[in-house]
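retry 2 of 3: previous attempt timed out while embedding NAP. Reduced batch size to 1 and resubmitted. Inputs unchanged:
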Amino acid sequence: MLGAHYRVWQNGKERKSGFRSFVVSGEMENKRAALVTGGTRGIGNAIARRFAADGWNVAISGRTLESVRTALAAFQKDGLGVEGKSADSRKEDDVRELVEFASERFGRLDVLVNNAGIGDFEEITRLDPKDFREVVETNLFGPFYGIHFAAPVMKKNGGGFIVNIGSLASVNAFAGGCAYNASKFGLLGLSDSAMLDLRPDGIRVAIVMPGSVATGFAGGQADGDSWKLSAEDVAQAVADLVRYPERAIPSRIEIRPSRPPRK
Ligand SMILES: NC(=O)c1ccc[n+]([C@@H]2O[C@H](COP(=O)([O-])OP(=O)(O)OC[C@H]3O[C@@H](n4cnc5c(N)ncnc54)[C@H](OP(=O)(O)O)[C@@H]3O)[C@@H](O)[C@H]2O)c1
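retry 2 succeeded.
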């Protein structure tokens, strides 16, 4: 039979289901599987789209059921079968359940992309401590939870690839960036350390650090300045990374717009 059902879960309960017509039933468990956090729009959405177009099983997350549903409907409209679950990356239990959802649904987990992220840019004495916490919990704790829960599943499968979406703000500090820089510098350290911990188990860990990408991030616009990187440029780097020969880990990738305006 050509086709398969998809389901959206929240708090362990099925909230929405549907039928996608292009997946051949029975292939689900043999296809490679990727989980992309924050795949409802922007860079994560482009990464999920890329994996799905390449024939992978893909699951995404977002904070709300609404945003996940909307994204899944758009994938479905484009003939791409993607699963989804609402899961807040700041919450340990949500991330644990998200990893369980994807690995149980697909029977394996080959790739985790820790993409979900937010920015809040304010001079340090004016930044509300609550906002500092929210940025660090999303951009740093979220990826920690993801790696912590996904690595044992990958280890059981004999290996995997974890890609963290950092930023050039992982290596360059700027005024007004205290929360974002702290979270993304921290993510670089987390990524390198996890890479050293996990490579003996066949799990490769890398960080992709883009410059300005045209998305709705922090008030930006997805169809904004044409000189900026596109979400698809970042998805290309992730797709290339996971195809890299198994012997090697390109563990830090920086991507810059090739023609930014002169300053
Ligand atoms: N855009 C840039 O210039 C740029 C440059 C370098 C790096 N990055 C990094 O790239 C990543 C993606 O950014 P983007 O530009 O695609 O931003 P975006 O368009 O604002 O998308 C952010 C994504 O993250 C999800 N998200 C946010 N908080 C979440 C949480 N607590 N739990 C689960 N999902 C959450 C959002 O989903 P919901 O809203 O549905 O929850 C959305 O899918 C971020 O880590 C960002 O730091 C962006």
